[in-house]
Amino acid sequence: MSRFSQPPDRVFQQLNASIGYDWRLGPYDVEQSRAHAKMLAAAGIITAADRDALLAGLERVEQELEDGDFPFAPEDEDIHMAIERRLTEISGPVGGRLHTARSRNDQVATDMAMFTRAHALTTLQRIQHVQSVLVQLADAHLDWPMPGYTHLQRAQPVYLSHHLLAYFWMFRRDARRFEFVLGGTTDLPLGAGALAGVNFDTDRGAVAAELGFERVAPNSIDAVSNRDFVLDYLSAAATCATHLSRLGAELVLWSSEEFGFVTLPDAWTSGSSIMPQKKNPDAAELLRAKAPRIVAHLGALHGVMHGLPLTYNKDMQEDKEHLFDTVDTLDVCLAAATGMIRGARFNVERMSAAASDDLIAATDVADHLVKQGVPFRACHGIVAGLVRVAVDSGRSLAQLTDAELAAASEQLDPAAFRELLSQSSWLESKVSVGGTALTRVREQLDAARSALALHAA
Amino acid sequence: MSRFSQPPDRVFQQLNASIGYDWRLGPYDVEQSRAHAKMLAAAGIITAADRDALLAGLERVEQELEDGDFPFAPEDEDIHMAIERRLTEISGPVGGRLHTARSRNDQVATDMAMFTRAHALTTLQRIQHVQSVLVQLADAHLDWPMPGYTHLQRAQPVYLSHHLLAYFWMFRRDARRFEFVLGGTTDLPLGAGALAGVNFDTDRGAVAAELGFERVAPNSIDAVSNRDFVLDYLSAAATCATHLSRLGAELVLWSSEEFGFVTLPDAWTSGSSIMPQKKNPDAAELLRAKAPRIVAHLGALHGVMHGLPLTYNKDMQEDKEHLFDTVDTLDVCLAAATGMIRGARFNVERMSAAASDDLIAATDVADHLVKQGVPFRACHGIVAGLVRVAVDSGRSLAQLTDAELAAASEQLDPAAFRELLSQSSWLESKVSVGGTALTRVREQLDAARSALALHAA
Amino acid sequence: MSRFSQPPDRVFQQLNASIGYDWRLGPYDVEQSRAHAKMLAAAGIITAADRDALLAGLERVEQELEDGDFPFAPEDEDIHMAIERRLTEISGPVGGRLHTARSRNDQVATDMAMFTRAHALTTLQRIQHVQSVLVQLADAHLDWPMPGYTHLQRAQPVYLSHHLLAYFWMFRRDARRFEFVLGGTTDLPLGAGALAGVNFDTDRGAVAAELGFERVAPNSIDAVSNRDFVLDYLSAAATCATHLSRLGAELVLWSSEEFGFVTLPDAWTSGSSIMPQKKNPDAAELLRAKAPRIVAHLGALHGVMHGLPLTYNKDMQEDKEHLFDTVDTLDVCLAAATGMIRGARFNVERMSAAASDDLIAATDVADHLVKQGVPFRACHGIVAGLVRVAVDSGRSLAQLTDAELAAASEQLDPAAFRELLSQSSWLESKVSVGGTALTRVREQLDAARSALALHAA
Amino acid sequence: MSRFSQPPDRVFQQLNASIGYDWRLGPYDVEQSRAHAKMLAAAGIITAADRDALLAGLERVEQELEDGDFPFAPEDEDIHMAIERRLTEISGPVGGRLHTARSRNDQVATDMAMFTRAHALTTLQRIQHVQSVLVQLADAHLDWPMPGYTHLQRAQPVYLSHHLLAYFWMFRRDARRFEFVLGGTTDLPLGAGALAGVNFDTDRGAVAAELGFERVAPNSIDAVSNRDFVLDYLSAAATCATHLSRLGAELVLWSSEEFGFVTLPDAWTSGSSIMPQKKNPDAAELLRAKAPRIVAHLGALHGVMHGLPLTYNKDMQEDKEHLFDTVDTLDVCLAAATGMIRGARFNVERMSAAASDDLIAATDVADHLVKQGVPFRACHGIVAGLVRVAVDSGRSLAQLTDAELAAASEQLDPAAFRELLSQSSWLESKVSVGGTALTRVREQLDAARSALALHAA
Predict the structure, then answer these.
(1) Of the candidates C15, C279, C317, which has its C-beta nearest A336's C-beta?
(2) Which end of chain C is more exposed for a tag (fewer CB within 10 A), N or C?
(3) B375 — alpha (psi -120 to 50), left (phi > 0) or beta?
(4) Which residues of D touch C172 (CB under 8 A)?
């Protein structure tokens, strides 16, 4: 019997039902139910025979879910109810014993923690994959010069390897963030009951051990009110997606006719419905476009949790779609980034030509003067003046006359000045640790390989 | 001389200048400049005499900043330029040597990392403070019964101590998040130069050691493009603020006449301009209201970084106001939460009365039947039927007749049923680990004290 | 032939394909294609025979879409390509003539504008529906007193009708917002081509007229770059959802045992998996919970459009899922709000009792003194003092002694004071326009009915 | 006397006080107080002498605010209290009569509506200004060819005037949005009292008329709970800022060495602290960077209002900083956009050269075949094949041999094909309404001028 005298309104069912998406929790729900049944029997709350019946039923449910022939029913509001209903169809009334000493509140928190942990691990593998490809690419393009940009203006030349490795370290930090996510899923909610604990002296530690949790959540109220670990995943994903959006934006830019630094593989570009000549960097654009979506999921879940009194409120059902779409979006974005950069062809001529504009050596000229004893700020002014003369007269720095150089500064030896304006020295002079000189990039590449090996181990 | 022939437009200055807020980086800028000057001298890039002159000038600058009499000039665009200008006024042309082998790009990234680290540490102390007060309050209200709520409906009774400790564990996770933030500020950006490294063989390791960084950033391009640590702080703050918003919302609710669970201290409430009787929980409302602001800062910085090509872009100047306001907002919110709950007076009568509604024992009746061997799902149905009869006839469960009980289930012994409906057993029967039974709450309180001691150590 | 030598990567297809959601544009795409074909023939760009063949084919496509047996193919990347492919299967090579003088860029912008307009109209109907129910409810509960709250503290009594009508006016503003959305979909994008216009002297005005647009977009570049109307819908929806969240929050609050102001219909509430007594206001909680989701969609699309160079970029494909989910979410929320409040039973005893707490009349006492000539601010102080005496001694205002009243103010006539503290006068004295006195609420109800009639006409 | 026995805690004051920003409401507060005082006297609630004393006092307050010598006091929590306090200092106890028949709740809602209206008007002027400059620029660069881009790939050539006018129409829609904002500020909140109306038969209509409101808010509860008009301003500003971010992004791109389409004025660019050659487009970058900030303000206020029970809650104090910063940010951004584009120098050679890449004419070749009777889809395939041959062999389309052309399609006449590949025809053939042919751009320019004149009138 129910305490309700009216069936749910059709619109209410539409608003309320989560089965359309929470079916994805199915495997985790079966796994936790199996552990719960074993514990109930071990604690003497159900019999061994009941346990065996439950385990057998759960095995069949699991198989049905895996095979895609689990018979969903119209009245299944969520995956937990669907599984309990199906279990009871398979195993008989004993199915009704499974929900002893637990509630949907601790059950769903447990499923969500298990889902989050599993997908954080998958994300970590995807990140490692893109990192490996970056290391290979850096190795293959070790000494290809290109302009480094600040404010999208050519600033100083760097090697392409150095630029690519910048993304390696971004992803290294992303990995650290997903490792932190794992650390937020270590406390088992199951056994917290509806909110207050349960009327049985259960062995939560045993369940935790079986399900791979490190410990049990110490406070039952918090256990069912907590979705921090979902926020953690969303936040880590948002930063990773923001990194990917920068990579996507650079690929879009570099594959423009104006830059011409990269040719994206045909397999990662599209044509136009009307313009036959077009080869559009759709994948790179979508890489750029997905970050706001994930950031929005993060903001939305914060919004949902905002101001919610303890403990469980139905609002918290909104955690699922935000997490699921984030997991899927990030997964395909990481895979796409990996595939796309692996197939990209960089254009050494265009990059080198862009890097040989001699204005890009202005800092080096200033530092040359520093080494003659002129304070840096004064050097900066001298060279800025030379740049103005050159730009106004449409010449390169190297084309300035001895007289013009002498007028700017008596410390400026014309021969040394012109010597300096030969490209390679600009790159190789950046000898500081982490700089673009080849020896430094090689050190960095070794460090990247070590970081990757350590992590993969 | 400048390479520019026109002065900046007044509107451009207004848009561009950051001095109005980045003056807060002053102390960090002086500290890093001091370390940089020492390193330049040690590496033979400047002389010992120059170093001493710079250090003396920086000391005076520091003093002026501290005393609030640093003479800002109208043309100071940002704090870095202001300090260099002032230093040169004080020390003469040698001031112009300080910017050797660094750029504003690595300089500002370093200041921001130092600022973030310093404030993450302060935030950690604030969190510990509110945790201590929660432990004291839990201790003082150990066995005060109140209703636990799900869906804001009375669900099962709990002790007030248990409810308060739920917040303890939320803040414990927040602390873990700010510890993670610290771990994101360990790599020194300084020495990355504009983006490519510098033309001098500097000793970045020495600077890192002096400024408390664990290592140097391994890639100069990444070092100046990276604001992950700011995102990390904002994300940690957003979750903490969301927790505080739940606390604020509960205090608002509990101080309503309808709940009447708490009286907030006069020192944390306001009157009305028109209604003389009003005592409004303004502080609690603002605690609730601030989370969306911090979440917005987080979303905004993601938006700024979204799709930005490497390396530094002016857009990144937007990191500051979002971080500064977040730091200030979270700081005052944590302090307010601490002060407000310390002064709150809980109303034991109102809470107990609310917790003694016998419908709240329905789960216990169901579990009682479970212990007679009835499957839980069947028990749930039996009790739901009893609830419906009681509610429809305006009686409590205890007022149901023997005949009504027998009609519901033959396993239901009327005497045991009525015995069960005496309040304290409902609380003390929640014996599972993390549950609300007093022994369990005492265990939990010990765990909380240990966690706090460990952390404080 | 294609200009590509490699087929799309499987992961790229997964990232790129929009057919999984943009099938919803199908009916609009057929409608615009029909208008386009007619115009092409009228302008002499295709023959009448071609037009007839296209129209016949489109009719069949439309039927298949409607019947749900449109044969989607694995290579269908989006609904536009799917329809063109299918049309060509049905009608032969003439199908290839349909894309003359248009591009996917103007085509999709047109579909989206049509979709937005159609759904804005549906939303307007839903809003009118909930407004009608509010008017009925206000009428039925015209003179039921309840406390009005500020800061969730009882402030001044109002009639339930007055409170319910507050939502009427919120929805009135929402309607105004969706009318504005309609005004943003009046300019036909079709015919802008890829971005520059087309190589044919087409009759865009005729297409606009046939499809119900008021005029043609004046700039082809803007026409394909513009998604303002989607932002407008999302923004209108966000505000409407925020209003609904306030309604949901009040229903949750009012159906708590502590408030007890409303009993929600069984058809709009759920039970608990573990606690047999529970009747949870799930629908009201979800009404509250959905606003952050819609606000997030709005923020996400702004994020996508942020910093995009003109004209069309693939990023803009992200407009669809945000719009579609918003439309669906708002639709079910408005329907749920309507159904839920129509079935709600208000509890006149609980509301009246809460409204009769005499502290709530403090403003009236102050205003009574004002009418004796005391400045309001002084009156406020006098009454605040009386409140303090009453609260400190656990009495109502009416229980204060003559001596206590005299001590507070000599203008305070005890008889008039106690007379005033009789409930009904507190309500009926709020005689200002828009106030809670019954004559004013009746005026307001008439105004609401007029606004509704005007709009429905 | 106060009903409080403790003074506010220092931290509470810090959290609670709004005087640090709401001083900006000062002029509006004085203006509404003046209208309120006149109405109180006209309605016989205060005497004419009291009114005159209040008006005299308010005039002095207004002057002090304007002159910047209003004496703020440490205990001033907000501007409303500060003004009332000061008024009472100036005018004596009569100052305490001003707050008769109003509350801070309706007072602040009124100030905010007045502030919003005033700033929406200013924003409209700023928008008109940038539109005027765009019209002038379009006129001055009417026939300058440049590539139109989709996916940041060269797509079809357009005139610079046509591209610039795209922004004109975006701003036209923004203006429409701010006009809508005005329409949301037409209902006077003042006189709603705390929430229920007031105990006096006030003449709200007279106050509305004096303050420029069209009517009085019809429901007092809604009047003090409503912040829709702030959301409306924030939403309009967010879309406008997103438009500006696209303009900023294009200016950054176009001023890169690779594009070289524009030289930004020295007055709107900055140098580098280290690289003497740099001229950075800081203003354009900040134009791009500000959109996420304003979008965040919008999201934050939605978050604050989310789930708030009626009527006024202190949370709503958060409306101010979000609005004020948005107003200021948008104001400087619109001014900066206007100044920056007015001073920009476009580079006709670079743009023309980029537009003369003959691949950009591929659509025209396809349409040429359409005119020979080949279905568009087939034409697209033929030309795509030619593009592939050209690209693979490093030739332009015009360099393909007669044999290659014949192999692709027998309808392709080599002479006509090569004739077509002369640039100007590609532009002038886009003859459809709204297209880039000069006659169409001239029509558009006229339409823009009319729209502007209409609006300015």
Answers:
(1) C15
(2) C
(3) beta
(4) none
Catalytic residue from among C270, C272, C393, C450: C272
- Beta strand B215-216 with B187-188 is parallel
ipTM of the complex: 0.95
B447 residue type, one letter: A
Cβ neighbors of B12 (< 8 A, separation 6 or more) are: D267, D268, D282, D283, D336, D339, D340
Among D151, D273, D306, D432, the active-site one is D151
Residues of C whose CB is below 8 A from A19 = none
- Say how far apart CA A114 and CA A29 lie, in whole Å: 9
Question: Residue-wise over A37-72: b if at least 16 C-beta within 10 A, else e?
Answer: bbbbbeeebbeeebbebbeebbeebbebbeeeebee
Closest Cβ–Cβ partner in C255, C277, C384 for B271: C384
- Look up the pTM and report it: 0.96
D311: which 2 tokens? 């009527």
Contact D316, D305 (CB under 8 A): yes
Specify whether A368 is catalytic.
no
Q: Which of C291, B278, C243 is nearest to D314 (CA)?
A: B278
Confidence of residue B67 (pLDDT cuts 50, 70, 90): very high
**CB-CB neighbors (< 8 A) of C202 in chain D:** 432-433
* Residue D299 in tokens: 């999201």
Phi and psi at residue D329, in whole multiples of 5°?
A: -65, -45
User: Rounded distance, CA C424 to CA A27, Å?
Assistant: 61
Whole-Å CA distances, C226 to C105, C222, D133, D239:
11, 6, 21, 11
Helix, strand or coil, per DSSP, at residue C345: strand
Residue A256 phi, psi (nearest 5): -70, 155
Q: What angle do CA B37, B42, B46 make, to 5 degrees?
A: 60
Rounded Cα–Cα distance for residues A203 and A188 (Å)? 12
Residue D360's pLDDT is what?
Answer: 85
CB contact under 8 A, C435 and D197: yes
Q: Which two tokens stand for residue B363?
A: 């789960």
Per-residue pLDDT of chain C (457 residues; tens, 9 = 90+): 567 778 888 888 989 989 999 999 999 999 999 999 999 999 999 999 999 999 999 999 999 999 999 999 988 999 999 999 999 999 999 999 999 999 999 999 999 999 999 999 999 999 999 999 999 999 999 999 999 999 999 999 999 999 999 999 999 999 999 999 999 999 999 999 999 999 999 999 999 999 999 999 999 999 999 999 999 999 999 999 999 999 999 999 999 999 999 999 999 999 887 788 889 999 999 999 999 999 999 999 999 999 999 999 999 999 999 999 999 999 999 999 999 999 999 999 999 999 988 888 888 888 889 888 888 888 889 988 998 898 889 898 889 999 999 988 888 888 888 888 876 667 888 999 999 999 999 999 999 999 998 766 5
3-state secondary structure of A194: coil
Contact between chains at C336 and A4 (C-beta distance less than 8 A): no
- Tell me how close the Cα of D285 comes to any Cα of chain B, in angstroms: 6
DSSP-based helix, strand, coil % in chain B, nearest 5: 70, 5, 25
The string of DSSP letters for B374-393 reads --HHHHHHHHHHHHHHHHHT
Q: What is the mean pLDDT of residues B423-442?
A: 89
Question: Can C151 be counted among the known catalytic residues?
Answer: yes
The predicted pLDDT at position D456 comes to: 62
Report d(CA C58, CA C30) in Å as an integer.
Answer: 6
Angstrom distance (rounded) from CA B429 to CA A199: 5
Q: Which chains touch C (3 or more CB pairs under 8 A)?
A: A, B, D
Q: Which two tokens stand for residue A429?
A: 């002079």
Measured between beta carbons, which residues in chain D are less than 8 angstroms from residue C317?
none
